[in-house]
Write a structure and sequence with these properties.
Helix 7 packs across helix 9. It is elongated, with a radius of gyration of 23 Å. The strands form 2 sheets. A 7-stranded parallel β-sheet has the order 8-7-6-9-10-11-12, with helices on both faces. A 5-stranded parallel β-sheet has the order 2-1-3-4-5. It has 380 residues and is α/β, with parallel strands linked by helices.
Length: 380
């Protein structure tokens, strides 16, 4: 499928989303970012209006680039409709979780924002609005982009931290210190180990890059194994050339991997992508890391497999927050590292998200393909 989109003709005159607006608001050849900011502030073409589905107290808004657009903020239909004619003229829409997806559906289906020509999901995961994208955006010809790439670096660091955590037996080291025990045990090294990546999108590629720095061999499983690896990071690409991923494809990766990192998105096809058969196929003593979507992991199957694994690090879960009665809380420190979906929650978290949004905004203004388009049919 093509991931390149161009925007349909726009109806709002001289806005950022039209060619005229692109020339008046965005950079001409050689102009700097500072000049673009000054132009907005000194009376050039007015910035475009963007509908932002978000509560006013969402921390993401504190970092919004106010020079880029006029943000029409609202968390429900009542607060959005209060923007009046500006709402009807707005050509772009930004969905910032945890705004309920039904608000987005009602806004579009009921015709309150008829001029919208582009929609963006602030974070990488757009599974909560996947049905809206298929049923509303796609038929209307409205492309969807997401925050893909904004948080890949931090998630890659987390994955390698987890691999080191279990290979160096950090929990054992801490226990030894507490018990004043001089335990000179043999430590594993990552060099020469095989890093297995379930999915090979932006996050996985960042993980692969760090794995290579540690001297690891990289194997990845892709939905389309015939797709060229333009990064050159994968030593082996597994998966179908056409058709679905089969159990044999998964086993081929899991049986040879010392560290398995799941970066899969949340779709019906990835639900419990890893269950009993998959964890049984993993090497004894292998490390498992989950930083994609929690839906991809059968948590009960993982708990059952933990005794034979080296350990697992989970940052995402089927239900969030993780229920207090989940068996995961009861697992020993030596086997499970658990974080509250905050592996990518860094000091620059929101600024990075806005940077990706702005890149797409400016590309739309120039009539260029989106930087991070979502394949609505695939859901990511």
């Amino acid at each position: 499928r093509s991931h390149r989109h161009s925007m349909p003709p726009c109806r709002v005159r001289s806005s950022l989303l039209s060619p005229a607006g692109a020339h008046s608001f965005l950079s001409r050849t050689g102009e700097t970012h500072a000049l673009r900011r000054r132009r907005v502030c000194t009376g050039g073409a007015p910035p475009p209006s963007v509908v932002v589905l978000s509560s006013a107290d969402n921390p993401a808004l504190a970092h919004a680039p106010l020079d880029a657009a006029e943000l029409l903020i609202g968390h429900d239909l009542e607060s959005l409709l209060a923007h009046g004619d500006k709402l009807r003229r707005a050509e772009a829409l930004l969905w910032v979780p945890p705004t309920p997806p039904p608000v987005l559906r009602a806004l579009l289906v009921e015709g309150h924002a008829p001029a919208v020509r582009w929609c963006h999901g602030f974070y990488a995961g757009v599974d909560p609005i996947a049905a809206i994208a298929r049923e509303v955006l796609l038929p209307a010809g409205i492309p969807l982009s997401n925050g893909r790439g904004a948080f890949s670096s931090s998630l890659a660091e987390y994955a390698l931290m987890a691999a080191l955590h279990f290979n160096k037996q950090v929990a054992r080291c801490q226990q030894n210190r507490r018990e004043r025990r001089w335990d000179k045990f043999e430590m594993s090294v990552l060099r020469g180990q095989t890093l297995g990546l379930l999915g090979f999108g932006d996050i996985a590629q960042h993980v692969a890059r760090l794995g290579k720095a540690f001297g690891m061999r990289v194997v990845c499983l892709r939905r389309n194994a015939s797709k060229p690896d333009e990064t050159g990071l994968a030593d082996l690409v597994l998966g179908p050339y056409e058709g679905p991923i089969l159990p044999a494809h998964k086993r081929a990766l899991l049986e040879q991997s010392d560290v398995v990192v799941c970066t899969l998105p949340g779709t019906e096809e990835t639900r419990h992508f890893l269950s009993s058969a998959e964890f049984d196929a993993m090497k004894g003593g292998a490390t498992f890391v989950s930083v994609g979507r929690g839906i991809a992991v059968d948590e009960s199957a993982l708990v059952a497999a933990l005794p034979r694994l080296g350990g697992a690090a989970l940052d995402v879960f089927e239900t969030e927050p993780l229920p207090a009665d989940s068996p995961l809380w009861e697992q020993p420190d030596s086997k499970l590292l658990l974080t509250a979906h905050n592996a990518d929650y860094t000091a620059d978290y929101f600024r990075l998200g806005w940077r990706v949004w702005r890149d797409n905004l400016e590309r739309v203004g120039r009539g260029e393909p989106l930087a991070t388009p979502v394949d609505v049919g695939m859901g990511y």
